[in-house]
Amino acid sequence: MFRKSIILLALLCAPFSLLAWGVVGHRAIARIAENHLTSSAKRNIARLLGTETLPLVSTWPDEIRSDPQYRQTGPWHYLNVAAGLNFPAFAAQLTAAPAAAIPTNAYNALLQVRQDLKDPKKTDAEKLFALKFVVHLVGDVHQPMHVGQAEDRGGNGIPVSWRGHDTNLHSILDGDLVEYPGFTYSEMAAAYDRASSAQIKQWQKDDMTTWLFESYQLCTPLYTAAAASPKFDYGFYPTFGPAVEQQILKAGIRLAGVLNEAFDK
Description:
Layout: H1 2-13, H2 22-35, H3 39-49, H4 54-57, H5 60-63, H6 87-94, H7 106-118, H8 124-140, E1 159-162, E2 165-168, H9 169-179, H10 185-192, H11 197-205, H12 208-228, E3 231-232, H13 236-263
Parallel strand pairs: 1-3
Antiparallel strand pairs: 1-2
């Protein structure tokens, strides 16, 4: 109990930019995914989770980042690449790094934990670990600044102000825009879960490279806005809020597709 309290305290004291989408966003993504699971997938996931739920475990990978035994998972939450890439060049960067025993970014970490979910040789404990990271990382890679420019560490190095307080571009995407409507995660999921059948089919058909490139492209207008005027006011949410809502919805729908593929047996 004492150790858990120390970890929680460290998390609360850490910069908010460590937490993509924040608690509300991640849990809303998981709740949307729950709405689109098959009956079989729900049963198999529930067996693995026990008394836990997808929304509650969605933030676990952030909660354990201060624990030394999970230090290697730090780079799993983001992917920073060069600016100005087209799709072929972006895709090439994803696979340019040599294979490593421990994943080094969100792309190869997500590949690994998705594979672990389907591996019959993995124990339930290993699959539970993989499940928690799948739920979290699908959310992370839909946050544009988690697929941002290496030069500024995904917007962390770009100082801006939000409604009068100093912050950085990454943090605004992680929390301020998500929390602006004032939803609980359940309210957010209910409000955003409006995808059509055609959208669900297409989004779940898209591969991971497409997911990441969409986030990467969404960075461009954000970088442009910050360069034009780093003082963001009440007009920022109407401009960029719809993209945030869409990314949270896409993450939930695509997460359901990943989990149905792994657990609908």
